[in-house]
Amino acid sequence: MYKALIRPILFLFDPEKVHHFTFSMIKFLSFIPGMSSLWKFMYQSKDEKLEREYFGLKFPNPVGLAAGFDKDAKLIDQLACFGFGFIEIGTLTPKGQPGNDKPRLFRLKKDQAIINRMGFNNQGVEAAVKRLKSRNSSILVGGNIGKNKVTPNEEAFRDYEITFNELFDHVDYFVVNVSSPNTPNLRALQDKGPLTEILSKLQALNNERAIRKPLLLKIAPDLTDEQLQDIVDIAKEVKLDGLIATNTTISREGLITSTEEVAAIGAGGVSGKPVKEKSTEVIKYLRKNLGPEFPIIGVGGIMSAEDAIEKLNAGASLVQVYTGFIYEGPKLIKDINRTILK
């Protein structure tokens, strides 16, 4: 129904406006008696064979919603009905910020892809905490944290520290995001020196707590083997609990959409099918160099159940979807879980 009827209508309109409209409609529909139960019946898969346990957390199934979809934790209860095993909110920054100028979200339909240059638009960590305090669902929630655009890289740790402390009691795990291509100079924080410093300081704060929270790092798909080896070394040195591979790509290689149309869109990260192979190769490298037990969350180009299985076979412990959820609808989550069971 989604692909045949709903998606063609939604795809007629501006992607960002459709995103906000969809949020409003899901919220509205959730107030109809029995609707949440219907969603659960249609999309949730419950089976002990789907359960996974990593970094001290028990996931009811290995399919999560990637950061960026519900940045401000507005739809946790509703999205939990669609069969996800976990939901990642953010990227959140200490202060709310509008993000980059519009338009900043574009569909590449021929490529089953999206280009975005949102720029960490969010209402700030305090607003998200208020919503998290009032949620009813017990679904596992990750907090993806970043720095404000106006914060210089030399002071970036302060932003990560503020967001970490504010969110600590309200999320189940943390993800440090230094890999978005849409905040100026952010990816420079992936260099070994600054990244080690940020993660070491956060881990020190974490270890001071009575009960620490898992700390993960999200990396780009555009890293060289040398840079990936630095990530491996950092993960071991800082004792990270896991890695998320990968964020969006700045590459435009192999796109079906005309170069003129892509050039007219301009800067931004590509997600969806074009990033699938890059993401999978990064996962393979990490698994080979971090051993069989280190948790890796695979994300990037999962448009079908087969794509998710490919990520798992490459070494991912869990997977996340975003663009595939937009193109395929909530049935994708159930398809992945059913295929895993088979």
From TrEMBL:
Q: Where in the cell is it found?
A: Cell membrane; Membrane
Q: Name one Pfam family in it.
A: DHO_dh
Cofactor binding annotation: Binds 1 FMN per subunit.
Query: Which chemical reaction does it catalyze?
Result: (S)-dihydroorotate + a quinone = orotate + a quinol
Pathways per UniProt: Pyrimidine metabolism; UMP biosynthesis via de novo pathway; orotate from (S)-dihydroorotate (quinone route): step 1/1
Q: Which residues bind substrate?
A: 71, 116-120, 177, 182, 247-248
| Source superkingdom | Bacteria
Residue limits of the Dihydroorotate dehydrogenase catalytic domain? 50-340
Record's family?
Answer: Belongs to the dihydroorotate dehydrogenase family. Type 2 subfamily.
Q: What does this protein do?
A: Catalyzes the conversion of dihydroorotate to orotate with quinone as electron acceptor.
From the Swiss-Prot or TrEMBL record, give the protein name. Answer: Dihydroorotate dehydrogenase (quinone)
Taxonomic source organism: Fulvivirga lutea
